[in-house]
Specification:
Blueprint: E1 40-49, H1 53-58, E2 66-69, E3 72-74, H2 76-86, H3 102-109, E4 113-118, E5 121-122, E6 137-138, H4 144-147, E7 153-155, H5 165-178, E8 182-184, E9 186-187, H6 190-194, E10 197-200, E11 206-213, E12 231-232, H7 240-253, E13 259-265, H8 276-287, E14 293-297, E15 305-308, E16 311-314, E17 337-346, E18 352-363, E19 366-369, H9 372-386, E20 391-395, E21 401-405
Parallel strand pairs: 1-4, 4-7, 5-6, 7-8, 11-13, 13-14, 14-16
Antiparallel strand pairs: 1-17, 2-3, 9-12, 10-11, 15-16, 17-18, 18-19, 18-21, 20-21
């Protein structure tokens, strides 16, 4: 959350409860068998995955719960608030717990690459960034919670990766890398932060993931990586110069047969209207042949989707995992609901073949399949927001939502 977007934290109150404890075991590895045809690639993409603060406290290796927020000094407050809303959460939970019903969906779909915006520092080190207001962090020993869902790529170009300063960022990068997770959008210097994540596909071709963050999402300008300073791959704005930077970066790495995704942390947390400059920038990237999928995030709820010249633009994926359960405010956006996106692209042209979305509900820090009425609510909201962009959202036979476009 950004400082201007504080929810009603007055609901935080001391609570006590005797909760059962539960051991944990690692789940069986995903089959990861690509069931797609050789001429298509399927990407699983998600918005913000925040495994710090309250969620870190229920995982097997909870870190120091101390935080420095206006209304709270302990991450345990968020756990207590969630329990007051929906009942006791067993702890420690196993590493797969937070993913809930998404694991079976992912095993069945077997996407080629799984990409999230990891919106938390992964560190025991560092000091809270001055006057930031909100700090997220997860203990490095809890990284297996990402491996439990076989995540391939963690986008770090966001407004929380430096919550615990440069020491926290450096440990985040080394911890994720040491566990075999690919990161993009932040680095030990500007060159490292600008490098794409590269995934080689069976039979040839690659998926390239580029990531930038923008100040409109709450990223401090001071977080920009420089030649001598670690930080975020920051775009100062969406000007012609910014477009040229993205296009040049893609052109420097793209080869024939590559599929390119550009991930952008942009815009505010709340509200459905899509800034016109976001649409212009996304269209310009596609016009310049720089991108096959625009992956937008920062909004806490899903935004409308557009297909421009055959290429999908997800303007805001919404949060997938967070610890906001039980917080009051913004009820009209149904922040308990989330979407997991499966995007299938033609490997030659990069054009969209299919886009499916799986509605989930966050309850007790776990992702559960949304019931029919919640599924219908989310479908109606997405359809309403996507229609002006030339797309429709319909119900699919397997309880998923599917995008239709001209």
């Amino acid at each position: 959350m950004k400082r201007r977007d504080f929810i009603k934290y007055s609901t935080l109150a001391p609570l006590t409860a005797a909760l059962p404890h539960q051991g944990f075991t690692m789940p069986a590895q995903s089959k990861r068998q690509n069931r797609q045809s050789k001429d298509a690639v399927t990407l699983c993409v998600a918005g913000d995955v925040m495994t710090g603060r309250g969620i870190d406290q229920v995982l097997p290796h909870p870190g120091d719960p101390g935080i420095f927020e206006p209304y709270s000094r302990s991450a345990q407050d968020y756990l207590r608030l969630a329990e007051r809303a929906n009942g006791p959460i067993p702890r420690p939970v196993d590493f797969a717990y937070i993913w809930g019903d998404t694991l079976a969906l992912l095993d069945e779909a077997a996407p080629d690459v799984r990409i999230i915006n990891l919106e938390t520092a992964v560190t025991r080190r560092g000091e809270p960034w001055p006057r930031k207001g909100i700090q997220y962090r997860m203990h490095p020993d809890n990284i297996p919670c990402l491996s439990a869902a076989a995540i391939d790529c963690c986008v770090l170009a966001n407004n929380h990766v430096l919550d615990w300063g440069y020491a926290g960022l450096e440990e985040t990068l080394s911890s994720l890398s040491g566990f075999g997770l690919t990161t993009v959008g932040a680095g030990t210097n500007r060159t490292a932060a600008q490098q794409p994540a590269v995934f080689v596909l069976p039979g040839g071709g690659r998926v390239l993931v580029f990531a930038w963050g923008l100040p409109s999402s709450g990223i401090p300008v001071a977080w920009a990586a420089t030649a001598r300073k670690p930080g975020v791959n920051l775009l100062p704005d969406l000007s012609e110069n910014a477009l040229r930077e993205v296009a040049d970066s893609v052109a420097a790495h793209r080869r024939a047969g590559d599929v390119v995704m550009v991930s952008l942390h942009w815009g505010g947390n709340w509200g459905y209207p899509i800034p016109e400059e976001h649409r212009r920038f996304a269209h310009a990237l596609i016009d310049a042949n720089s991108v096959d999928l625009v992956h937008g995030h920062s909004s806490h709820h899903p935004l409308g989707i557009e297909v421009y010249r055959g290429k999908p633009v997800i303007y805001g994926c919404g949060d997938l995992i967070d610890d906001y359960e039980g917080i009051s405010g913004h009820e009209e956006f149904r922040i308990d609901l989330a979407l997991l996106y499966l995007v299938t692209l033609d490997r030659d042209s990069g054009e969209l073949r299919r886009l499916e979305m799986f509605p989930m509900q966050r309850r007790k820090f776990r992702l559960n399949r949304a019931v029919r009425k919640d599924n219908d609510w989310l479908r109606a909201a997405l359809d309403r927001e996507s229609r002006p962009l030339g797309a429709r959202v319909v119900r699919s036979g397997n309880a998923a939502l599917r995008l239709r476009w001209d």
